[in-house]
Amino acid sequence: MKPGSKTLAIVLLFVGLVLVNYLATSLPLRLDLTAESIYSLSPGTKAMLAKIGEPVTLDLYFSKDATGLPIQYKNYAVRVQEMLRQYVRASHGKLTLHVVNPRPDSPQEEKATAAGLTPQVAQTGGEQFYFGLVVTQADQQKNLPAFSPQREQFLEYDLSQLIYSAQLLDKPKLGLVTSLPLQGGSAQEMQLAKIMHRPVPHGQFIANEWEQSFQIVRIENSAAALPPDLAVLAVVHPLNLPPKLQYAIDQFLLSGKPVFLAVDPSSQYFKGQNGNQMGMMGGPQPGVSSNLRKLLDAYGIVYDAQRIVGDLENGTDLQNPQTRQVSRFPTWISLRKGSFSPKALPTAQLTSTLFVEAGSLSAKPGSTLTFTPLVETSEQSGEIAGMMTQFADADQLTKQVTPSGRKTIAALVTGKFKTAFPDGAPAEPENKDPAKKDEPKPAPAPAAEFLKESKGTSTLFVVADTDWLMDDYSIQRLNYFGQAAAEPINDNLELAANAVEFLGGSSDLISIRAKGSSLRPFAVVRQMEVEAQKKYQEKLSNLESRLQAVQAKLAELQGKKTEGNRLVATPEMQKAIDDFQKQSAVMRGERREIRRALREDINALENHLLVLNLLATPLLVGAFGLWFYRSRRT
After folding, report:
1. Do 67 and 126 form a contact (C-beta atoms < 8 A)?
2. Is 376 within 8 Å of 407 (Cβ atoms)?
3. From residue 482, how far is each of 165, 199, 474, 478, 626 by CA, in Å?
4. What pLDDT is recorded for position 393?
5. CATH topology for 37-165?
6. What is the DSSP letter of 423?
7. Which of 73, 118, 440, 608 is deepest in the core (most CB within 10 A)?
8. How far, in Å, CA of 318 to CA of 332, rounded?
9. Strand 315-319 vs strand 326-335: parallel, antiparallel, or unpaired?
């Protein structure tokens, strides 16, 4: 081949490589081989993007030039940017992405501040940097003030939720059916409290939290229907709901709208209202226990309103105000990190909650619905009769708890629900007025259309406790210069807010699940370190036991009489000291050997992987070339 032809061939090869790379990045074809498909959009996100009407602008602010910026934030910024580009591709022109680098004292920094983004401080150097997102559709603007690598597994949900919220002109409506004074007492309760000279029930802080994102529509327990245009329905401690209202709740759920349901076998609020008079007489206390048995039975959910969960491991220490004695009550359950589902959005980042005399939930055998436990107790949990809590003290309650495994306090139930009213809407109650008993009965109305099964996937968030929503068990009220304030004492409020906000989003968002992290741990190296640590810990334990024996011998020798308040070094003591020094030297040498062996194994593994990574591509290309050459010869 002539020199000019060789040059032309090299140039054409280079152009071909550039074109192939360009086409590879331009084609909407991607192959995600990660374990949890963390680089792929969920079907729920794609469905949400397909429903976008007017164009949406995404402004990603990231101070990539900030001094001392942690490397994890730089890597995460690339991750966020790549994810947003997928959103843009999947939106078919409905989304536009702008990446902004807000340098200090620049117009871009002023825009970031005006949009409500929160500046973060670098670990070294103390320089502020911005890393947030602003979503704009027409005059509506929403923001994510600051990205955090700790929320990487919820990145897709956070982005989809933000884009969806930017399209909402008004707050969604939250229907609230409750017998508790979450918003304060009703008008009748207020008037009765004044007549009876009782304290007027004040609203609970959780209602303020919900009002940040929703327009709360109060629904009386005696209502026969639900208001229209509700985005989500919350039913908290339902008492004596009429069949008509239960039917309306059933049809609301089957229509695809989500429901938040909190029932309770032992409400502390109603216990305080009723006192112990009914309990002392042996009768049930009114209002203490709540249930929606007809609905829960139809939905395949097992819940016993007469049984309370006790947890021997996670009981709460309470002080008796009279005796000042502290006792651990197993029915006051303080849960920590390991008790919450790490994959569910409402519970993944919770650290502590308190449930008071809660019940347990489970799925009926053979149920076709997906029952996902969100909050569970420890293995040292059992159930006791609710009546026991009226008379028993902490020790007696502890003796009554027989551990039978983990119990579910909160769960997410999804799938195609069957109606609890297979015959349709319940009939109107008969008129028992004697004066009207002879009047002719009206002709029955024709049966109206109703849902016997969910249209699509329905979602029910159910909790077997209601006390966790009350201020007494979730916040500490403070007074700052005459202004009322609240300080959370646990994550109860966060759980309640997360649950309703999660349900209040679109049905597409509810289907999005948490994903894994792009930072994959080196499991082999970690296992090697664990095994070496076990060996090291065993040697260390042996050393500690021998040290204790030597120190005991030294203490015994030092306890003997001395001359002139001076310690006399006897031959026995000197020998013990010599033995101690020799043993210490030997153990230090063994420890060095273990650490060196550990590093040798890990370094050898790293070297093998490095060689494999460097040679794999050339060897594969060479093998392909050899096969291609032999194929042409053949």
Report:
1. no
2. yes
3. 35, 21, 22, 9, 84
4. 85
5. Glutaredoxin (3.40.30)
6. T
7. 73
8. 9
9. antiparallel
What DSSP character marks residue 53?
-
d(CA 457, CA 369): 10
Low-confidence stretches of the chain (pLDDT < 70) are: 1-4, 6, 20-39, 123-126, 185-201, 274-284, 429-448, 479-485, 507, 511, 513-574, 576-578, 580-585, 587-603, 605-606
- One-letter identity of residue 87: Y
3-state secondary structure of 408: strand
Q: How far apart are CA 466 and CA 473, in angstroms?
A: 10
Is residue 500 within 8 A of residue 176, CB to CB? The reply is: no
350-390 pLDDT per residue, tens = 999 999 999 999 999 999 999 999 999 999 999 999 888 87
CA–CA dist 384, 307 (Å, integer): 6
Are 557 and 577 a contacting pair, CB within 8 Å? no
Give the separation between CA 263 and CA 277, rounded to whole angstroms.
23
- Whose tokens are 């609710």? That residue is 386
Contacts of 508 (CB under 8 A, 6+ apart): 44, 45, 47, 48, 51, 160, 164
Task: Output the pLDDT for position 243.
Answer: 95
C-alpha 33/C-alpha 53 separation (Å) is 33
Q: Give the type of residue at 374.
A: L
pLDDT at res. 632:
78
What secondary structure letter does DSSP report for 118? P
CA R_g for the chain = 33
Q: Where are the alpha helices (DSSP H) in 255-319?
A: 268-274, 277-280, 293-298
State how far the alpha carbon of 587 is from the alpha carbons of 578, 592, 594, in Å: 14, 9, 11
Rounded CA separation 287/65 (Å): 61
- Residue ranges in 260-346 assigned as alpha helix (H): 268-274, 277-280, 293-298
Q: What is the pLDDT of residue 381?
A: 96
- The packing angle between helices 71-90 and 43-50, to 10°, is 50
Instruction: List the domain boundaries for the chain.
Output: 37-165, 173-305+360-378+402-422+451-504, 523-558+573-608
Residue written as tokens 């650490």?
595
Euclidean distance between CA atoms 101 and 79, whole angstroms: 16
Q: Which residue has the tokens 């109650």?
A: 429
User: Residue 131 carries which DSSP code?
Assistant: E
pTM beyond 0.85, yes or no: no
Cα(452)–Cα(454) distance, integer angstroms: 7
In angstroms, the CA 335 to CA 349 distance is 13
Distance of alpha carbon 611 from alpha carbon 608, whole angstroms = 5
DSSP 197-260: TPPPPPBPHHHHHHHTT-EEEEE-TT-SSPPSSEEEEEEES--S--HHHHHHHHHHHHTT--EE
